[in-house]
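<goal> How does this chain fold?
<body> The protein record starts here
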Amino acid sequence: MKVRSLSIGIAAFGAAATLVATGIVSAANAEGAPAVSADPAVTQLVTTLERFEVAPDVQDKLVAKFLRGESLDADKGAIPVSESTKTVDGQRVTRYVYADGSVAQSSLALPVEGGTGPRAIAGCNHTSRNGTHEYKGCKVTWDAVSWSGGMVADYGYYTFGSFVTSVTGAWFEGGGDISRNPSEIPVPSCNSSCVSWGQSSAIQKLTVGGLGITRTIGIKISVNNSNIKGGKSSSFG
């Protein structure tokens, strides 16, 4: 499985934080299907594309691709052709545009220094002691064209390594039926030459233009202390 990394510029962290969206698709029918305007999955797709301000002609192409049972680039983890980052309401938000015209957006809550104040209770807070930096209650989200999800992560880094201590509160939205898998932290700690990470995922089953589609969707946060000035965000599929 390929992993592509893209900077989202979380420079204030001093550690690389990665958000990953996954999409693995298998179609029950290999044949294409004609457009079905009343298809709930298509309706949701168009609504999301409009929210992302995708041009109408590009929307038509993406809907046709979706109805053929093909994954859009934003859902399967292709490398984006452009990205832009801004801070919105205490979150670092990055918008990704892909070659087929699809769009995705990631966000990571920015920390409150010292762990005091209103946002320290409701959101991400940062504490530092004896060279160890901890970030707790940090909301992570990924919003693609046909699904979205989020979770809350606790993580940190120190001089010789990094760690992920908690991944909780996962949620996923999208068409069809979604069954959430247990969150996991396969690599809870690691030295500076590798990456610690945790993830939340779900199984999404939907019918698109007569095609039955089942795929794994999920979000992964990775942390390392590689002295990179900025975070990392990536998708894979």
